[in-house]
Amino acid sequence: MAFPYMEAVVGFMILMYLFETYLDLRQHAALKLPTLPKTLEGVISQEKFEKSRAYSLDKRLGNFVLWHTTLVLEEVRKFLAFSGLNEENEILHTLSFLAGVMIWSQKGGPYLAIYLWGFMFVLSLVMMTIYPILIAPLFNKFTPLPDGELRQKIEKLASSLKFPLKKLFVVDGSTRSSHSNAYMYGFFKNKRIVLYDTLIQQCKNDEEIVAVIAHELGHWKLNHTMYSFIAVQILTFLQFGGYTLVRNSTDLFRSFGFDTQPVLIGLIIFQHTVIPIQHLVSFGLNLVSRSFEFQADAFAKKLDYGSALRAGLVKLQEENLSAMNTDPWYSAYHYSHPPLVERLAALDEADKKEE
């Protein structure tokens, strides 16, 4: 007797829907808490807390029912769509599909996964090269950071870490949102650092800005960027390998009601059968990403930017109206970056160990 793939996938989707709904309810209860977490007492004003709390609750209540209803309806629609496929539109969809990236899937043979991964690998390198230089400037204005004390401090920090800084830019992120950030890009000895203008505006002093840069340089020094890139390449290869297995599985197609194995249907079936693995992988990547964030914070602290980083994180939290109270289960499952209260708690714990 063939394994009931479709029933297993539908059952898993229902379980995940119930689990994520439970997490949403836990998060909603956390957001409703009327008091600051102990870590933020005396750090965040009551006025800022109430404003952030009201914003988070209004945003969540407005999206909660709509999001869950849409999710269920969309998944049901996808499954119902299977029954509406006939031979004529199957051929049309398959031909359209073959015109895209998956053009190799009747030519790839046993090496299909390698060909597809190779294509995506080259594409990712090309995009990493041309996006910040040719594409990003189409949407934002990048200007060199003016000479001054801030530039000197950043250059001194980069030099002390042997970071090959070639250019230092400010991007007009404030034209789109109040979100603050800093990032770096470039290969080998040709690195660039980009500061959001909102970061400069929102931080109290240069030390807080440099502390944020120290955190980002921590990701570079600890090879987080390289590890993440390698992990993505491995997962991409495994994903394409999984697709080839699905495409060649007669039992899997029959479980979904198909006697033939058209390419397009194989892709759709793969997208559904891989859902359980995707959830596990996503959760695992979140845990790794959160660990990287804590490590980068600790790196900045070792450079004596602990106090400045703490102050900068608090300031950015206030300006972005991010939630102050978060449920730990919800946070671990959904957030690739730990919330402020967890980051400050980790910094405080490191302080206690040093005493």
Automatic annotation (TrEMBL):
Co-factor remark: Binds 1 zinc ion per subunit.
Binding site for Zn(2+): 215, 219, 293
GO MF term list: metal ion binding; metalloendopeptidase activity
One cellular component (GO) term of this entry: endoplasmic reticulum membrane
InterPro entries registered for this protein in UniProt: CAXX_Prtase_1, Peptidase_M48, Peptidase_M48_N
Coiled coil spans: none
Known catalytic reactions: Hydrolyzes the peptide bond -P2-(S-farnesyl or geranylgeranyl)C-P1'-P2'-P3'-COOH where P1' and P2' are amino acids with aliphatic side chains and P3' is any C-terminal residue
Domain of life: Eukaryota
Cofactor(s), by name: Zn(2+)
Keywords: Endoplasmic reticulum, Hydrolase, Membrane, Metal-binding, Metalloprotease, Protease, Transmembrane, Transmembrane helix, Zinc
Active site feature: 216, 297 (proton donor)
Function: Proteolytically removes the C-terminal three residues of farnesylated proteins.
Listed name of the protein: CAAX prenyl protease
The organism of origin for this protein: Hibiscus syriacus (Rose of Sharon)
